[in-house]
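Work Package 3 (structural annotation) set out to generate three-dimensional models for the target panel prioritized at the project kickoff. During this period the team completed the workflow that converts sequence records into discrete structure tokens, so that structures can be stored uniformly alongside our sequence database. As a representative example, we reproduce one entry of 205 residues exactly as it appears in the project archive.
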Amino acid sequence: MMALAMPAPLGTELDRATLDRARALDPIALRAFVVRYERPVFALLSRMLGRGPHVEDLAQETFLRAFRALPAFRLDGPARASTWLLTIATRLALDSRKKKRLPLAEPEASHQVPDASTPETERARRELGRRLAQAAEALSDDQRAALLLSDVHGFTLAEVGEALGIPEATAKTRVFRARQHMRERLADLREAVPCDSQDLATERE
């Protein structure tokens, strides 16, 4: 499936001992929490809202809200720290989109796989990035959020539903329709884009 060129689902979560100290608002543990999760938070927000200073502001707000809620976070609960945090970021992004329409950013070069690129493959990558951004911009905010959480950040459908405040079945429908939309909008690129550039469609951070 052609999807947005974005980071992969989070791998290793912050260790339990550090999370426990973070819940006690230990400054060093809170710093470790930010370092571990700031990249996916920025990636999610920038692709929901477009690049700009508003992304940094909302990332800061995401962590501030997380810090206020961390003492009540259950280490043995159903949510991973990453899904819990990205849920906060998602809801802030959706609220921001409702208040003001913002352009979706094209995938940045920093998210591409470094290699010995030729001018042809670089042009193909730029075109792919432009088309990905255009296709994603045509999605509804809710569909884009569902696709990002599912295909980029590795949320289960149940977690997508929890993050968006919708039933799991509705989350499944939104992800399906978003994937279908992206496939249809990018179908002509499947043959036109070199293989290494096609890999960018599912490239991960």
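The chain has ten helices and no strands.
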